[in-house]
Each structure stands twice: as C-alpha cells, then as structure tokens.
Amino acid sequence: MKILIIEDEIQLVQSISEYLQTENYTCEYALTYRQAVHKVLKHNYDCILLDLMLPGGDGMQILEEMKRLKKMDGVIIISARGAFEDKISGLQIGADDYLSKPFHLPELAARIYSVVRRRNFGNSNIIDENELQINLLAKTATINNVELSLTKKEFDLLLYFISNRNCVISKNALAEHLSGDIAGMLDNYDYIYAHIKNLKKKLNDAGCRNYLKTIYGSGYKWEI
Amino acid sequence: MNKLLDLTLRKFIRYAALVLLCSIPAYYLLVDLIWQHELKEHNRIVGETVKQNLQKLTLSDQDLHEKISLWNQLRPETKITPADQYRPDSTYTIYRRNKYIPAKGLDRFQVLVTYFPVNRKYYSITVENNIEESYETVLGIAVVTFLFFFIMLGGFILINRRISRRLWQPFYNSLEKIRKFDLHQQQPVFFEATNIAEFYTLNVNLEKLIAANIDTYQQQKEFTENASHELQTPLAIVKSRLDMLLQSHPLTPEQSKIIDDTHRALSKVALINKNLLLLAKIDNRQFSGNETVNLSSLLQDQILLFRDLATDKHFRIKQKIAPEVLIAGNITLVEIMTTNLLMNVIKHSKNGATVYIELSPHQLQITNSGTVRLRETRLFKRFSSTSPNVPGTGLGLAIIQKISDQYGWIVTYKFENNSHSFCIDFNPPALKHT
User: Fold this and answer.
1) Scanning every residue of chain B, which has its alpha carbon at the shortest distance from the alpha carbon of A19?
2) At A76, which CATH number?
C-alpha cells in the first residue's frame, strides 16, 4: 500500500511514516505545494494525507485539481484549521475523511485503513485474521464461523485494534477515539476498561486466541 | 433616576411657586393701601363738601337743628353731631354689621371724623364708606395667582418638551446609539452631524473611544485565533512523537506512566486550544445557518453517550425530555452547547449523585446536587474554574454563554436546596431596556 503524506512539518511527516511503516505501508512525502502537485499528478497512491496550509498554496486546490482529473486516490485531510466549514467543503470536493490536528497516530492509521479497505475491497469487504473474520459492510464479526454479538462500540474497538496491528495504543488514544473531545475533560479513563474487558471476554468465550494484549502501564496491543 | 430636563423643570417650577406665593401678600398690601388711600380721599371730599355747604347756609339754630336731624335720618353714613369742642380730624377702619342687609355679615368701613363750626357751635361729621374686606381681597388675589401659576406650569412643561425634542435631540440620539452598541458585533458607531459645539465634541470623542475599543477587541481576538492555530501543528508533533515513543522496546512501567501523563496533559491543552478557537469563531459569526434542530433526539443521543461515562463514576441520570422540541440554530453549536452542559454537570458530580435533565418546549434545565453555591459573577468567565482539583478547560461555561448570546437564549444559574441548576431559556421575554 502506497501512502503520500503532504505536510510541511518534517517532524510530523517522520512520525507518521515511521508509524505507518510498521503497518506495512510504503510512505512518500511532499513538503511543499509544488512537490505535492507534482507527485499527485505523476503517481497513484492508495491514500493521500493532505494538509491544507502548505508553503506555496492551499491544499484544497490540490483536491480540486484531482477531482478535475478524475484521480481516484483516497484522500484524508489533516488540517490545523479544523474549521467545520473546511471539513464540510473538503468532504464535498471529494476527500474521504477529515482529521484535525493534533491527532493520535493510531487514529490516523485507523482512518487510512478504513479508506483503503473501502476503496480497494468495495463489495466483498471482509477482513480475515486467522479464526477471526470481520465483515465491514454488515458490521459483523465471526469466530470459526460463529457470529459474535458485539455492541457498536466493541465492534468499533475491534476494528481500531486490527487497523493498528502490532502497535501499542495508549489509553488516551482509545479515549479520544471513543469519546472525541470529551476525553480532554475526563479525569479517568475507567470506562475504556469496561469496554475492552467486555470485548476480550466475548472474543475468548467464542474461542478466539488472545491477540489483544494489555501492555502494563502503557495501553493495549493487537499482536498477531 | 432623574432625567436631565425634568430636573431643571422641577427647579423652575419650585422657584416659580415660591415667587408667586410671596406675591400674594404683596399684592394684597398694595391693593389694600390703594383702596384705603382712595377712600380716605373720597371721605375727605364728602366731608368737606357737606361742611362748606352747611356753612354757606344762613340758618337759625332751630332750623339748623331740624335740618341736621333730617340729614342724619336720610344719610346715616354721613352723620352730623354737635361737638363740645374743636378736635383734629381722625380716620380709622371699623368692622360692623350692615343693618340694612344683615345677611352680608361684617363689613369693613373706612371712617373720617372731622370737626367744623356752624353758628358758633362745633359739629362733627362722620363719613363712612364701605371698603372691600381684606380676606376677600386675599382670596381674589390668591385665585388669580394660582390660575397664573398653573398657566405657567403648563407652559413650562410644553416648552420643556419642545426643548428636549429639538435642542437635546442630538444628545438623546447619541445616547441611544451608545446604548445599542455591542462590542461583540464589531459594528462601528456613527453619530449624526450636529452644529452644537458640546454635542459635536461629545460625539467625536465617543467615536474615537468606540473605534479604539473595537480595535483592541479585534486584536485580542485575532491574537487568540492565531496563537491557537499556530499551536495545533506543534501539538500534533508532540502527540505523534509520544505515540512513537510508546512503540519502543523495552519500555519500563515508569516510562509508560510518564508517556500516559504527558498524553493526558496534552489532551487538555489541545482541548483548551480548540475551545479558544471555537470562541473566536463564534465571535466572528462563523457559524451561520439557522437549521431546525431536534433538541429532544440530540439530547437523547448525548445522554446515551454520557451514561457510558456515568456508570464508572456511579451516579444516576434521571431525564424528563419532552418529545420533538425543535429550536432554530446551528446544529454544531447546539451540540457543543449541550455537550458542555452535560460534561460540566457530570464533572462536578460526586459518586452516587443523581443528575436531573429536564427539557420542556422552551427550556432546558440540568440539576445536580452540591454543597456550596458557585460564584455567579465569575462563573461564565473564561478560565475561572471554581474548583482547582476538578479537571476541565475552564472554558465550558464561557462557550455555553457565548452560544446562548448568539441566539438570544438566556442562561441562568441557581443554587437551591443544595443543588446546582443550570437553565437555558430558548424563548426569553423581550429584553427590557432600562
């Protein structure tokens, strides 16, 4: 899978590409508007991460250009602007998702995973993970062909872990994933334990191997 | 509170009343003096005429006596009587009952007694003349005075009104404009041209003052906005770096703890930053759009989310939500407002507490128990979190207030029966201007 990171902050580019490489993505990057236009027009990517404020131009114009040329790459806008209007107009022009800075890397990875899956596996969108099988369209999970009864949140969490295979996910990232901005107002993340405990129990009871590991003091990891 | 022109009017009226009141005795004395003077003169003429005419006649004593007796019977008001000796003239006033028209009561008389010789004998003649009684004079003057006073009063009020309408109009215009001025609207105020020097100076300086205010406010807003924007990318770098750090091996529990703590603090900074941006955006009226928001279903959804958070803090949520409550507003803002309200109440609830959420067609009220009344004056100000040991950005209530302001809703805080209660009135009565 090929990802293009269009972002002028080199440190952020480094973090993103390092993290995504562990998920077996190949990353390229563009630091300026000119570089970005050049790369976007010349190559095809599975997903493009697009910052809107770039030296030399507005990222939104790249999006418009892509649309004009009917380029089908998936696009996730990553912007400091975070304005609701930007979000709406970005999605209208043809971006697949919008993530406002600052974000957690696992959150970004989950969004990329979802965009890539949606684009590449349109109709038969099924993830096979040994005995575990997830149907993204029907939003169901089965273990050895037996369906699990997961709540919406548990299913969401399961997908989140799988899209961050072999990476440690902090409790903070999970809290922000589950409750958005509210996470910043909470003094404890106890409610996450409840959801994860339930998910783990359901997986174990159905005979799934213990992929979901608790990393003491750090968070959780889907190890495979 | 007194109005400027009413104050001067009142002073004028008081002064006019005093002057007119003093004029009543003065007029009386003057009128009475003239009366007396005129009647004295009249009495003297009558007396002198009778005297001289009598002296001109050559009558025998017997004849004279008969004539005088007849005279006295016919004209008792000019009575002639023999006198033992010559005396100087005397004048006085006397109150006496009129014996011919008794119903008239006491009458005042001006009297002249003068002595003269006829046939080598002395006689006195008493000339009396009815003079207006003093109380009648006073009454008449008072009536006229009061009449004039009321005419003057009416005149004053009329003139005052006309002055206020014409002369002071520019002043009142300026006053009205200042009253309507709202810094948040960022609309400069232009005063009407006036050719009165004082008003002109006032208007020019007010314009300067307001322009400076708007400018300062604008700068402050832009600063907040820019600072918040500029912070987003460094925050993103720190956050992603921490996420990477977490992937390194081996990581001791202590190191993990440090990362976790840093993440939490970072989340809070990010949220504060986001909220500051949000406040600036609301100020800039960047949330346009007046959709119809179904507050009932929005609240139901949010309560579901908060129940999830509520269980681990062990408190109950009791709700009474009227169905299909529709309000006009920007959906994003309404959502932010209700989230902040709910978050605020949950954050400040102790374990085992109950939170009441009540939505009626015009009002949303959220109540939870508490021990101490919060400081209302600081409550809706930015960063005025009343309890330091509770997490939060210190911006939640400021955001609620700002959103309510945009739509003309009214937020109130009450502390009753050991409960905090926040209420948003979506349909407040028209604001009263004082």
Assistant:
1) B244
2) 3.40.50.2300
